[in-house]
Structure formats: structure tokens, C-alpha cells
Recover the amino acids of this structure.
């Protein structure tokens, strides 16, 4: 089979390090009857070991040449290739209790993470390889320099754990950054939830739009009674917890400021 040239437009960096592959599969620990979906199988580094452990594997691949390779290598009754853009896939169509895995292209990592939030009720867990800097932002705590909109918008829906780092030389071609693997487990229905997801999203986006400024200035036209919320008037966006943002969004909904 001809050598596949990595395509920049798809952000392709192919994982080649066997020890890293083993570590990822061990972290996922798939069982025979699990519904596993791999995003961006590429040259099958993870696909092969996952395929060996489950009765059937679904993979989502946007590159038609790689999709054709996968169809030649694996029997259709054991592996289904969905030739599609993962950003447009309806993951609910795969059913419930999904286990989503992938070495995600860095150029679409954040949009894809946000896309998957809508399907969290269908997912058991997600294991992704991402740029280490992105994972640092995902798991950051209030007060950390990496804490921002991505942190809040994902932590309101998932429990997340940075598992281990992956050096550039584990890939071909090597990326210019260090990678890492993250585990994301959707929080249960009993989790703290905002009365309006739309309002929550608006508040978080606006709060971090000028993160160096105090929130009383950034959100001045919403006329917030900070004392009632028990939030310091001098607080900045990175100081508020996910729970604080839920309270703030609920307050603005109750005041009729947001819907």
C-alpha cells in the first residue's frame, strides 16, 4: 500500500510509538461489548488494538484515502467506517453508553469538544490525545493562569483528568508541541446545573472576554448586586468557580436580564 502523506489541512500527525499506544488502550480498557467510537483513526495506530478488544468498532475519518485504507484492512462486520467530518456527526445516532476515543487534530480540538458536549448524556467516557496546553486549560482550577472559558464550559459537564504527556517524537511527522491524554467522564444528572444553558454560556463568554478587568466593569450594564451573590465586587473572571458562574447566570435569569 502506498505511503500516505500527512495532510496539513486535516492537522494530521500520526501516532507511531507503541508504548504510548499501549498506554492509551490500557487507559480506555475497552470490554468486548462496549460501543467504542474512534475519531480520526488515521493510519490505524489505535484502531488495530481497539479492534482486537471489541466485537465491533466504529471509526470516523474525514480523509477519503485513509477511509479507503481502513475498509481494505478491516472486515465490515467488525469495523464500520463513517467517512465524515466529526464536527458534523450526530453522536446520538450511535446509541447510549458510548466510549469515544481519538488522537484529535489540534486545529479542531476545541470546536470538537464543544460539539461533543451536546451528546454527553449518551457518553460513558471520552479519552483524547490533545495538545498539552489545551488539556492544561481544560483541567485548570479557579485562580490558575490556564483557567478560562474552556475550563468552565467543560467542567460544568465533565469530570476530567490529565493522564499522561506524549512527546513530539511519538508522532510522524512530529508536531511542534507536546501532547497529552485526557479522560473525560460526563457528570451525572444530579450535577449542579444552570437554569438556562444559554444564559450560562453567555455569562461565561462575556466574563472572560476581558479577563484582566474586574467583573463589575465587564458586566456593568447587567446591574448585578454582587453582595447578594456573595461574590467580591473586585473579582476577576478567573477567580470564580463553576458554581459561582451557575449562581451568577441563575441570578440574571431570575432578574429577567437573560433568558
Amino acid at each position: 500500500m502506498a505511503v500516505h502523506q500527512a495532510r496539513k489541512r486535516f492537522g494530521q500527525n500520526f501516532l507511531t510509538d507503541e508504548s504510548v499506544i499501549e498506554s492509551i488502550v490500557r487507559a480506555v480498557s475497552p470490554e468486548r461489548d462496549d460501543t467504542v467510537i474512534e475519531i480520526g483513526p488515521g493510519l490505524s495506530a489505535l484502531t488495530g488494538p481497539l479492534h482486537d478488544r471489541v466485537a465491533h468498532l466504529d471509526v470516523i475519518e474525514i480523509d477519503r484515502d485513509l477511509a479507503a485504507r481502513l475498509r481494505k484492512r478491516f472486515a465490515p462486520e467488525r469495523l464500520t467506517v463513517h467517512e465524515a467530518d466529526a464536527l458534523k456527526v450526530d453522536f446520538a445516532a450511535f446509541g447510549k453508553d458510548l466510549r469515544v476515543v481519538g488522537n484529535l487534530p489540534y486545529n479542531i480540538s476545541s470546536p470538537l469538544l464543544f460539539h461533543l458536549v451536546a451528546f454527553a448524556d449518551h457518553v460513558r467516557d471520552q479519552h483524547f490525545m490533545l495538545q498539552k496546553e489545551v488539556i492544561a486549560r481544560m483541567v485548570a482550577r479557579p485562580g490558575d493562569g490556564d483557567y478560562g472559558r474552556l475550563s468552565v464550559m467543560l467542567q460544568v459537564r465533565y469530570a476530567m483528568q490529565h493522564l499522561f504527556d506524549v512527546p513530539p517524537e511519538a508522532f510522524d511527522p512530529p508536531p511542534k508541541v507536546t501532547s497529552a491524554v485526557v479522560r473525560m467522564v460526563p457528570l451525572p444528572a444530579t450535577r449542579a446545573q444552570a437554569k438556562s444553558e444559554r444564559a450560562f454560556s453567555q455569562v461565561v463568554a462575556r466574563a472572560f472576554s476581558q479577563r484582566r478587568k474586574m467583573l463589575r466593569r465587564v458586566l456593568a450594564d447587567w446591574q448585578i448586586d454582587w453582595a447578594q451573590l456573595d461574590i467580591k465586587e473586585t473579582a476577576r473572571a478567573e477567580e470564580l468557580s463553576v458554581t459561582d458562574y451557575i449562581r451568577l447566570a441563575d441570578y440574571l435569569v431570575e432578574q429577567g436580564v437573560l433568558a
About this structure: The mean pLDDT is 94. Strands lie at 14-15, 35-39, 57-61, 79-83, 98-103, 123-131, 158-166, 171-172, 179-186.
